[in-house]
Specification:
The complex is a heterodimer of chains A (308) and B (134). Helix content of chain A is 31%, strand content 29%. Chain A is an alpha/beta fold and 308 residues long. A six-stranded mixed beta sheet of chain A has the order 6-7-8-3-9-10, sandwiched between helices. A four-stranded antiparallel beta sheet of chain A has the order 2-1-4-5, with helices on one face. In chain A, strands 12-13-11-14 form a four-stranded antiparallel beta sheet, with helices on both faces. The two termini of chain A are 22 Å apart. The two termini of chain B are 32 Å apart. The chains are: A alpha/beta (308), B mainly alpha (134).
Chain lengths: 308, 134
Amino acid sequence: MTSHPIEFDKLTVYYGALKALDTLSLNVREGSIHALLGRNGAGKTTALRCLLGLLEPTRGSVRILGHAAASMPPTLRNRIGYVSEGQKLVGWMKVNDIVAFQRATFDTFDDDLCARYLKRLNLPRDRRVHKLSRGMRAQLALALALAPHPEVVVMDDPGMGLDAVVRREFLEVMIDLIQEEGRTLLFTSHILHDVERMCDTISIIHAGTLRVNAELDTVKERIRRWRLVFDGDAPAPPEGLPGLVRARRRRNELLLTVVDGDAGVPAAATRLGAASCEPERLSLEDLFIEYTAEGVAAGRPAPGDEAA
Amino acid sequence: MVIWRVDPPDGEPVFAQIVHSVKRAVATGRLKIGDRLPSVRELARELVINPNTIAKAFRALEAEGVTVSRRGAGTFVAERRVVVRADERRRRFRAALESVLADAVHLGLSEPEVRKLFDAALKRFRFDEGKREK
């Protein structure tokens, strides 16, 4: 068993002349939950499509469970569960029919497990798929993906368009999955509060480029937004401040988002003549914005860079 | 058990929030020596938090001597044993206190106010209980 069931190695994808992903390198540890974050169009779905062997990389490679994703043997598909937002399920089929279809497709399909999920999620088995609500369709897709006991589960924005109750059920299912030894989860989401509950590691991609790739705890521990207050108008942000991610000036304040700034920022504040200098912790949502806002250039420092 | 103060969007890592919840509950007497903590599995379900995060918090609590785990039986609140030397203890406490007092000054509190709040807070914590007999 590989210790990194998911490995992106300098993955680069072009759509015609458009570069969708630029040398994305990132590993997901066995038994962990990783969230791939980014704004719409950042390249998340492209990365997942390559991971599932649905899209050929222009350069670089992706490995899943130790195999090149681009040439995945059919037996490997049994070991991967995939749930995508707005997944296409055959509308005229009844829930029971689609379960039978899935059972025939996957050798490792576990009927009992599937039945448990359907019951737990309250899915009516004799209803046609097109009569199900959006939330129910998402739950059905989840039950179908998990019933073959996949070792790796990939979810593309599973919470999108679902109400809070259904989303919570999804999270509970994810928790159960990770409790079973060896399961590895990779998901994308815009619901960062859910990500904060669920993730061991996160990555943030922006315009096809990896901006952050680290343990969520490390990111939260090492990044602070420092508020420097001045008696008059704030001066220009200090040049070359180590660890600086983003600097903003508002009248008499400078807001500096900095990695490991405990030593550098107070010293810089003194040099600039700030009246006060206070660090503030950031939620994942704040952190996400700091790295993906307009005008934040690529190549900004991020915790975890050292390990790469 | 309603000792958990876990708010994922808070800037503090979730595992650290769990560690602080337990330490605080022990220090205020809501958890007593020998009390059993929920299992990682139970707590992951209850709080809807990644079980790896809970396990990390439990490892940290055990490393700090706040809890002790007995194989097959679970995790329990440990007898308080301080492994840090006396002068180091005082140094750490002084550093924490000074940071709190700096906040108080910036918040514009007066000295009598700070004293009053400090005394009120002191009453809520238990200092001797669970100290190991010498």
